[in-house]
Specification:
The structure is a homotetramer. By secondary structure, chain A is an alpha+beta fold. Chain A has helices spanning 54-57, 258-276, 281-291, 324-334, and strands at residues 6-9, 19-20, 27-29, 33-39, 66-72, 80-90, 94-98, 123-129, 134-138, 145-149, 153-158, 167-168, 172-173, 176-177, 189-193, 201-207, 224-233, 242-244, 248-255, 296-298, 304-311. Chain A has four helices and 21 strands. Chains A, B, C, D: It holds the Pfam family FmdA_AmdA.
Chain lengths: 338, 338, 338, 338
């Protein structure tokens, strides 16, 4: 891609970011730029066989490397950065998943602390067939194999947080970050509220696929070649990350306990409908209560993430975020993808 | 329906049950019986216009009337009762929803207690078009109307609880009860573990449709004419309510905080796959983590309910619950539905 | 004690209650009656040595036997029963504690479900010196012994619940029940809101002592000889169990997650001060925020229990519950204790 | 104080830190240094009368100013910094408390989100009598006044966090920070695990007194003149902040939901006893279960904080943290306090 609007970034070792906030920008980009980026997997590429245990090959806190951050020219607190996912393609024909001691939903953890012994540390290597778009699961304790559809996504996308903070790339919160929702797939636009000048956008943590809730704490982790189109919405604030697809509006909430993540995401969707669709808050509350979906994103990270989702065809007429998603979709279609 | 295998029950006022456990059976039924029942709505039919506020027309604790209980002949603790939903049809051309003071997900409650004033009490009357299978939402604070697909379901189905307890019909727990999941629709089989002799099955709380999470605490509440086919699985225990459709296996968990409902449902699905599909527990944990869905049921009731769900086509070969769902599906197809 | 106002009850095997609600009263008592009762320990007396594992010697659901219920003549919904603890004396010179598989705060449980193995099941036998008022802890894995002060209390006291429910004696909720707070000691008055005619009061689960939070799920469990003085407050409602000592007012809340138990207890104390001490709700909120104590009761039972506590000498003048505690204290002093 | 071991620091406006981590050290200090510091109140001194509403006079995120950070010479990750509180004296004869919109335990918040209106914003000015050691509460809605004992403490003390993070001074976590426990009073030693070279210690948020749980979210906030003695324990790690008084050992945990804060604090205390007192983990679990106290610290901050506490006289012989508290106590006694 030699298009001047396209910036290609393939970080070398030592060039990744491990936090949101606190890292110097790798580039300044104008709104309207396509980023063609390589992202490494959450293990920094160190889990390559069933013998590579996270506790042995990974080096804390150097987990979940992010490509970026990118300084979006003109972005200021109170604005919104829109990240449209043009394509997300596995960069390898394999991916890895694993249990991690005292991490995941079906084990005690450092926070849900117990005196029990951790679960065994086991690695599953998944074979990816990029032509047939499949991921092959091979059981460790039997000969069972199961082929699942590939459904590539990014677990992590975000901007620098508010309140002068720097957060680990493992954390999801109002700045985005490690939300780990399968909804962050090709074709959607993610809206992120800007907290610092330039927004400082980065992304990583590609998954060839992931179940809702990411129960064991780790998805089908994979390096990715990803193209996103980045835009800027001046003067529009976005309190929590939102996602728009061709068919749905989605709000996210990240918190503990999980009901607070639910409450945040539902209130955000209610207030989004009230702002952009002419409904009163109570009418929007009623409509979301009967028409909404609530797929869990992750129930394993430092905060849990919940998605509130509603079909656009079930909404009254409205123009969310000034019609930006439709515009980005059309612009992306003009690009000859790599 | 004059088929001897069919029992028709249309309770009169005073003949409903308000609890699981603690109510005398209305009938004894043999396994293999079709129940053709009328269920009243959760308001006991008392909310019939926008002027009928729950706090004025309803009488606590007489909420969420249940049709039943039915004594299933031969059911003993350690067995499983299977309830196959043959049809769920709205009995009226309207349904009601409402806010209830200090009840719902986006308000403080008697448990998540605060010093704030409750939200206003507002009723929404929904028009049902049973031919076109639609539900019409009419906003209260504007002229906006939205037509949604009808998707009838039962919020409540369960058996007498364990541990000598009697629980309000408003409570979901291991005995089933008020789980409020939209997955409880026509065509599925619900498996319930038996805790007392005869199981004491009842059901109610029909919804013309409901969003995931039932955010405002109340769905599109509607009286129903429902046909279920009841079977008994001797010697098979079911620790938490499970649902099987033609395409999916589902486990439920009901608890607070919401992450515990998630944990229960996920562990139950993992252990179900381990029992019936030949996977080790850790392999099942990995497969569910990557292939599972996790739609919320309710985040408003005394316990919150979460569903763990997996596509049967993505599983290795297995025969869950001895192939009972397929058998019930076929048996139901033979019945000329009313 | 041959005083006509005294009723002595020493249940035989088979005469205990295992629930709140759902059990026939063992006696009708007039307000002003002293109950001189024997209570068995939570294991129904079956854990008598280090070899008696709960999973082997106890029979679910026959845990936590209650002495009662007592029908308090004249008690109706909306009234309050007051239970003044005159004396609580260990009935044996030993007590037992233990880990129970998948029960307790530092282990996964049936609700906080995990794939980990349970902790080992270990019994600790405690020697009680009733003259010196001490409890002797003997470590199992070393020769260490520690002598702690005896501080006898009842883990469980309550009335029949509202909403037509019957709850296991293991559950704490608005009806009281298994609150497991060390504050329920000799000299205090416990106020319980009446939900059914006659209140149906019972008590049990004596502890020679207990830490706050009851971390391992089990206290120093002991049969007790206990004297309580029971009174009735007509026309005074008590939404959650309250405790009054000579020095403190206390409100309890029982719920999950633990912050909801905290919220309930704090709101109840704020509203208690607003009702009986002439403070506005916001002023009471401020005073409790600066003057209150918040000792945890249990973080292991079906609901967790939190206590909100304030010194009476730090309150403006007021007369809580019509001065009943002071009156009961004086009446009890007149009784020659056994 | 002209003692060379004493460093006096009275920051000017613009010289406070607003985060843990991410701020340049104001001084390098040798272990054994006395810090004689002024700390401003959590409002940065801007709430000075009943008319000064936080939402009007304070400027987010410039809340909770910290004095520091101090680079402790020689401190490296894996070590422990000990902060002994020699004296904490109110710097003014008044202090302020207030409700803050959508902050506190008895209101919905940005995380426990609801559609309800916030509580009214009210300021209470407290008069401090430093000679009589009292704090005078004056109700806003009546003439009621109540005098409470002064019990000065620091809500916030901590070091730079691990994992490359920078956290707002409003956050409590494993690095300490805004724990808001009344136990952080004169005479105690706080142990903090070192995460970065030099530790980067800071403190602030003085309270003339505070209730357990800090229910309304704000204590009796007061600028302080405080003397601490700082020491370094090489090669001793401290996973969560610990506090030692002359009479008690205390562990803290900060997390959501509140039961996780409880679990962390209890597990830490159990493992502390196992390390320093020769008990096995299960024996320590039993002893803490029967002898421990569990006073809540805060149930309002970004994480909730719980304290696990045990009397030293009830422990077998042991020498926690190499007897450092006793040594610091003696050293402090030699200092002629200001």
């Amino acid at each position: 891609m030699s298009d001047p609007r396209i910036l290609t970034v393939r970080p070398k070792e030592g060039e990744y970011a491990w936090t949101f906030g606190g890292a110097a920008p790798v580039a300044r980009i104008e709104p309207g730029t396509f980023l063609n980026v390589y992202t490494e997997d959450c293990f920094a590429g160190r889990v390559r066989s069933e013998k590579d245990l996270v506790s042995e090959v990974c080096e804390f806190p150097f987990l979940n490397p992010q490509t970026g951050p990118f300084h979006v020219v003109g972005a200021e607190p109170g604005d919104t950065v829109a990240v449209h996912f043009v394509s997300i393609e596995p960069a390898r024909d394999w991916a890895a998943s694993t249990t991690v001691p005292l991490f995941g939903a079906l084990t005690s953890t450092h926070a849900t602390a117990s005196l029990q012994a951790p679960l065994p540390e086991v690695v599953w290597m998944w074979q990816l067939d990029r032509d047939r778009r499949t991921c092959l699961f091979s059981a460790r304790d039997s000969d069972i194999q199961v082929e699942l559809p590939m459904d590539p996504m990014h677990g992590t996308v975000g901007v620098a947080p508010a309140n002068l903070e720097v957060r680990s790339a493992l954390v999801p919160d109002a700045h985005g970050g490690n939300m780990d929702t399968p909804e962050m797939r090709t074709g959607v636009t993610c809206y992120l509220g800007v907290n610092v000048e330039g927004a400082l956008l980065s992304l990583g943590d590609g998954h060839a696929r992931q179940g809702e809730g990411e129960t064991c704490g780790v998805a089908v982790e994979c390096a990715m070649n990803t193209v996103v189109l980045v835009e800027l919405l001046k003067g529009v604030s976005t309190p929590w990350p939102r996602i728009e697809s061709d068919t749905h509006l989605m709000s996210t909430g990240s918190a503990r306990p999980l009901e607070d993540a639910f409450r945040i995401s539902q209130l955000d969707l209610v207030q989004w409908l009230a702002r952009d669709y002419g409904l009163s808050e109570l009418d929007a509350y009623q409509l979301v209560s009967q028409a909404g979906e609530a797929p869990l994103a992750n129930v394993c990270d430092t905060n849990y993430t919940c998605v509130a989702k509603i079909r656009k065809e079930w909404l009254p007429s409205g123009d969310p975020h000034r019609g930006l998603h439709r515009h980005l979709r059309e612009t992306a279609a003009l690009l000859s993808t790599p």
